[in-house]
Design a protein that fits this description.
241 residues; two-stranded antiparallel ribbon; globular
């Protein structure tokens, strides 16, 4: 039998945590901004007459299942299904344009950000007269965003929903309590996305009171600015060690 060997504790000479990966600050800032956008969109779509979440599909799938099982529930099975399909289609668009499982500067992020921005503008203009069309366009835009960079240095990152983010924060907390190694750079990303999503949701709720569905123009403008900035400084970013 092998002798019992004590596990090295964080901070000991035998313990080596992986260093902070390349492009960390860029990914952190970009992830937080995208989380703000997603929280904003989610708040607006929840407060709309449709009262659905456009930035993720868990609740929408549940609504579809309830509607299918109980037609008298008042929920529309086909609308819920179309929302899920729109989100998947958005993710597929990103998957076709770039390798969304790795962050690689120099790829077509700027173009996808501009496409998402345009979809949100169209969604905002469609909501008042065509509620379902507005919701579907918002879900399509969210699918594009969520697939932009789903993995960064072996960390699974989502900017349009928080279940995985909160789970990873809980895991990190458990490791810290047990005095095991914690990748603190990952914790910074997760906390940033969580904070950004909450802040975006609060901003979206306040903007809805003043502008209604036209509030989606604000995250659209943010995304357009991100796309322009990325195109402008892309070459300089590639030179960052």
């Amino acid at each position: 039998m092998l002798p019992d060997m004590p596990l090295p504790l964080a901070g000991s000479q035998d313990f080596r945590m992986p260093s902070r990966p390349q492009y960390f600050r860029i990914f952190l800032v970009g992830g937080v901004v995208l989380a703000v956008v997603a929280g904003f969109i989610n708040a607006v779509t929840i407060l709309s007459p449709g009262q659905v979440t456009a930035t993720h599909v868990t609740g929408t799938v549940t609504r579809a299942a309830v509607a299918f099982a109980d037609p008298k529930s008042g929920l529309d099975f086909w609308i819920a299904g179309l929302l899920v399909l729109s989100f998947v289609t958005g993710s597929a668009i990103t998957g076709a344009v770039l390798d969304s499982t790795r962050l690689r500067l120099g790829r077509r992020y700027g173009g996808l950000l501009m496409v998402e921005s345009g979809l949100l503008v169209t969604s905002a203009m469609s909501f008042e007269d065509h509620l379902v069309q507005g919701l579907l366009l918002a879900a399509l835009a969210s699918g594009i965003q969520n697939a932009l960079a789903t993995q960064y240095s072996q960390a699974i990152v989502r900017t349009t929903h928080l279940t995985g983010i909160v789970t990873d924060l809980g895991i990190a907390m458990g490791k810290w309590i047990a005095r095991r190694g914690v990748d603190w750079w990952r914790v910074q990303i997760y906390l940033g996305i969580l904070t950004g999503f909450v802040g975006g949701g609060m901003s979206g709720a306040l903007a809805w009171e003043s502008w209604g569905s036209r509030a989606l123009m604000l995250p659209a403008a943010v995304l357009a600015a991100m796309g322009v900035i990325y195109w402008t400084v892309r070459d300089q970013l590639l030179e960052i060690p």
